[in-house]
Amino acid sequence: VSAWANVPQGPPDPILGVTEKFKADPSPNKINLGVGAYRDGKGNPFVLPSVKKAEKQLVRAGANHEYLPITGLASFNKLAAELAYGKDSAPLKEGRLAITQSISGTGALRIAAAFLGRFYPESKTIYVPTPTWGNHIPLAKDSGLEVKHYKYFDKSTVGLDFEGMKADIEAAPEGSIIMLHACAHNPTGVDPTESQWKELSEIIKQKKHFPFFDMAYQGFASGDIVKDAFAVRYFVEQGHQLLLCQSFAKNLGLYGERVGAVSFVCADKEEKARVDSQLKIIIRPMYSNPPIHGARIVSAILGDEKLYNDWLSEVKKMADRIISMREKLYTNLVKLNTPGEWGHIKSQIGMFSFTGLTPEQVDKLAEKASIYMTRDGRISMAALNKKNIDYFAKAVSQAVK
Ligand code: PLP
């Protein structure tokens, strides 16, 4: 018998499954709203002009392909930390931020979870919002953490269940690990307001919980990198010892380059050195060291005033295009007298919108209009553009009538 005779068939990935069905559909009007990657106004993948310029510079410089150190490119790590925390952030100035390059946001989360599993003394339970990015759960479990949930999304208002969220975080045993989406919550597009973040900070402090931030969309949410980093920076100011996962997939359009970072706010330099040493011990047997190209691009952009400013306006353009699609979709749905309240389409933030469509309506849209999305009704706003938005709005309107 084969060694793998007893390997059971696993279920397909819910998001990649949507793309497969989309590909198989011959309709010229088909739309794939499943993927979380930015598309330009014509529906095409987008390479940022600042990235193109940085790549040209790299080619001209004739860089080699040597290995990076285990924790990655030093200039990248420094600039990534400054982008997230701000140059004047106390842990940076005081040399007590342990940071390592990672294989994009997913790799950052995986290292973070492994580190907590090994060293966080208070708890091995991580609380994630309901719902959360699908990968958070298996990733935490594979790292040896137990996953529990806190309330987040209120179906009836298609908004934040802030009371439920606070109550669940408050009820978690002291010292629990609380995973927070720093901005542009995936999949709902619903974020706490600044004053709600302040309340959350207070509760988490009182309960001595450990805040674990996932920031996959800095700049992409509002178009402003500082505004999107509010929660992280506020928590740091409030003295929380947090950890932060960063991804450069969305805000620099470097999806396939796999460039990210994970950082830990430490008490002092000496503690940072110990954390650094253990990060190396976790990473070395996983993949030895991270890929170099994407980190060089990010470093070239963030480290050059002109390219950095170009990039800021490019992120803003991406965010603004998405926001304009939200406006247009809302207006269309209202004009078509679509039953229901659609204000959430406009108020939600980031790449995704949780439409409130039911699984049956999602199926109907695929069948009748060749429009594909995950069955939770999440759509990638970036997949909408001037050419397809009227068609999409009409189909949605019909599906809910
Ligand atoms: N975290 C969240 C909430 C995400 O939505 C994503 C991507 O969709 C990621 C992390 C990580 O993505 P990547 O590994 O491509 O950086």
From TrEMBL:
In this protein, which residues make up the domain named Aminotransferase class I/classII large? Answer: 29-395
| Catalytic activity entry | L-aspartate + 2-oxoglutarate = oxaloacetate + L-glutamate
**Subunit structure of this entry?**
Homodimer.
* Name of a matching Pfam family: Aminotran_1_2
Looking up NCBIfam families in the UniProt record yields: PRK09257.1
Q: Name one GO biological process term.
A: L-aspartate catabolic process
Q: What are its GO cellular component terms?
A: mitochondrion
Classification via SUPFAM superfamilies:
PLP-dependent transferases
Question: Which InterPro entries does the UniProt record give?
Answer: Aminotransferase_I/II_large (IPR004839), Asp_trans (IPR000796), NHTrfase_class1_PyrdxlP-BS (IPR004838), PyrdxlP-dep_Trfase (IPR015424), PyrdxlP-dep_Trfase_major (IPR015421), PyrdxlP-dep_Trfase_small (IPR015422)
Source species, please?
Answer: Kockovaella imperatae
Listed name of the protein: Aspartate aminotransferase
Output the Gene Ontology terms for molecular function: L-aspartate:2-oxoglutarate aminotransferase activity; pyridoxal phosphate binding
